[in-house]
Amino acid sequence: MSDALVIDDTRSTADSLVRVLEALGHPARAAYGSSAGMMILREETPSMVFLDINMPGVSGFEILKFMSREPRLAKIPVFVVTSDDQPETRQTALRQGAHGFLLKPVMVDALEQAIRGL
User: Fold this and answer.
1) How far are the Cα atoms of 75, 82, 90, 116 from residue 101, in angstroms, in the given order?
2) Which CATH number fits the domain that encloses residue 64?
3) Other C-beta atoms lying within 10 Å of the C-beta of residue 53
4) DSSP collapsed to 3 states, 103-114
5) Who has greater pLDDT, 1 or 51?
6) What is the crossing angle of helices 11-23 and 108-116, to 10°?
């Protein structure tokens, strides 16, 4: 297992979440966009993944499907991090294997609680 992985196409959002995770004692790194995230997932096994859903190209839902079909990645906790608070989005994410659903901007308390729930 390696560090936590944050996959988000918005650099500032990804970097901010990495800093918060590290402040909470969880080494983390960012992948800026779905292509960069997929490249890392093909090579590494992160300890947990924080995944944006609405990204150009490959969506976060497609990354969730990829991870669930890949035995090495299937058991990694994935937290969807999105500004899309629609019930359908939440239900789809959880149905496709996400361990949690966090709304942007991510509040530190919500992040800590999600990680504690593992």
Assistant:
1) 17, 8, 7, 14
2) 3.40.50.2300
3) 21
4) ECCCCHHHHHHH
5) 51
6) 60
Number of alpha carbons in the 13 Å side-chain half-sphere of residue 6? 26
State CA 12 to chain mean position distance.
Answer: 15
Enter the tokens of residue 116.
């504690």
Q: What is the mean pLDDT of residues 51-79?
A: 96
Phi/psi for 7 (5° steps) reads -115, 110
Selection from 40, 91, 70 nearest residue 50 by Cα: 40
**Cis peptide bond N-terminal to 87, omega within 30:** no
Count of structural domains, the chain: 1
Under 8 Å between Cβ of 35 and 71: no
Please report which helix (H) or strand (E) contains residue 17, including its range: helix 11-23
Q: What is the pTM of this model?
A: 0.96
* Residues 41, 24 contacting (CB under 8 angstroms): no
Tell me the β-bridge partners of 33: none
